[in-house]
Amino acid sequence: QTIKPEEAYPQQRIDEIGTLLAQLSASQKAYEDAVKIADREFKSEKFDAATTAYNNAKTAKPDETYPDEMLAKIDSIVSTRARLAEEAAAAEAARLAALQAEKDKNYSEAIAKADELFNQKDYETSRNEYRTAQTIKPEEAYPQQRIDEIGKVLAEIELARKEQELLDKNYNNLIQQADRFFTSKTYDQSKGKYNDALALKPDEEYPKGRIVEIEKILQQQALDEQYRTIIVAADGYFKTESYLQSKGEYEKALGIKPNESYPKNQIAKIDDILAKEQQRILAEKAAAEDLQRRTDEIAQMNLQVEAQNIESEAQLNSIYSDYIKQADVLFDAKQYNVSRGWY
Length: 343
Fold this sequence. Notes:
Elements: H1 9-43, H2 47-60, H3 66-119, H4 123-136, H5 142-183, H6 187-200, H7 205-239, H8 243-256, H9 261-308, H10 313-332, H11 336-342
């Protein structure tokens, strides 16, 4: 242009270069601005915005390699993170599945154990197991249904226990009263209380045994009273020496109590008394006959004495001595009536 100022071509080129330089300057600025934004977004890990900015930088200066490098890096980071996120999601899913499987297993085991304990009527322990299952799966309705059912069962058991406790208390009170009456030998009242106790507990053996025992005692008492009444009558007859009537009563008493020795001894006494009385009667009869014979003999002897016309004292003394001697012999032999005749 300085050589040929009149030439238009150089100036045209200068203008064109100016335009190109202006364009290059604008592209550079746009590139730098885009890279600056992209780098900032990259550091903030805002990869979508960074990608847009790097692409803008590429548009501004397509020949620059930096934007492509950063875009490749972003793709690597995003893909790596996506892969890691996918792996983490899979791991989390596996973990959750394992946790769910463990939860299902623990829940099933708790329910199985609770059901078994429930069937065994171990309600308290069973309820604890249902509560354990409930903490594992709060959303499940079955454990709460069972817990409610156990609550009702336990309430019924408690009511039955209280009723049984009251029954036992009333039964024991009646038994204690019956035992006290039994100990004091008030058997009718005792039997009544034992029957009242049996009305509460019909299967109890103790009051049944006591009632049987009381009935035996009362039966024995009736026999004892009957026996005593007969013995009193027999003893009365015995004291008034009505021996035959007395013996009959003692024999009645033996019919009631065959093993009693007292009526046997009394009968033996009566038999002895009656035998001796019979012997006495026979002896008195014999003695009376002998006395009559002796009296006749004495009268005959007196007649003989009178016929002999005994005059001497010596003869009388001899006869007297013979009579006394005979009377003493009979007296010593306890033949008193005959002896008296001789005297």
